[in-house]
Amino acid sequence: MLLVFHQDTDSGCGSEASPFLDLETAQNTMRSVYEKTLELWGFDKSCQTEEHECYCRDDQAVIRDDPNFVTWTIETHQLDVEIAVEVEGGLVRNIYANAAVSPDVYDLDVSAYPDEGEQEAADAKANELKTRVNRHGWRSVW
């Protein structure tokens, strides 16, 4: 998701885009900034015209007080992030990617005769991993 902001006002003109991993976070950010901007402008929502209007929908928000206006638009883009994990001798040796990622490796192995607490630590890691991959947007890729 990209949240695209465009401003054409007396105080500035330009555009910027902010990436988000999910729609809900992008929408919440857009609504928050929209509300703060209304407050900052002292915008009167009670008397709207074509030249003086504001609205916030699921994928777009607009504040217009001619000639000044700002818009936010949420756009969906597929990011093709690829990761290659090199394993040798049962150990992760390298992780390669075509984008900035922060991989976490969860080693769930325990020895044949685990020390005190070793099995519990592995179980805690397994539960943490399960919780993480069950979040929205996560899926098994191999």
Mean pLDDT: 92
Largest sheet: 5 strands, antiparallel
How large is the radius of gyration? 24 Å
Spatial arrangement of strands, main beta sheet: 2-1-5-4-3
Structural commentary:
This protein has helices at 23-41, 118-133; strands at residues 2-9, 12-19, 52-56, 60-65, 68-75, 83-88, 91-97. The chain is an alpha+beta fold. The chain has a 5-stranded antiparallel β-sheet with strand order 2-1-5-4-3, with helices on one face. A two-stranded antiparallel ribbon has the order 6-7. β6 (83-88) and β7 form a beta hairpin. The longest helix is centred in the N-terminal third of the chain and has 19 residues, at 23-41. It is elongated and about 75 Å long.
Please give a quick description of this structure.
By secondary structure, the protein is an alpha+beta fold. The chain contains two helices and seven strands. It has a five-stranded antiparallel sheet with strand order 2-1-5-4-3, covered by helices on one side.
Secondary structure elements and their pairing?
Layout: E1 2-9, E2 12-19, H1 23-41, E3 52-56, E4 60-65, E5 68-75, E6 83-88, E7 91-97, H2 118-133
Antiparallel strand pairs: 1-2, 1-5, 3-4, 4-5, 6-7
Provide the descriptors you would attach to this structure in a database record:
5-stranded antiparallel sheet; alpha+beta; 142 residues; 25% helix; 2 helices; single chain; two-stranded antiparallel sheet
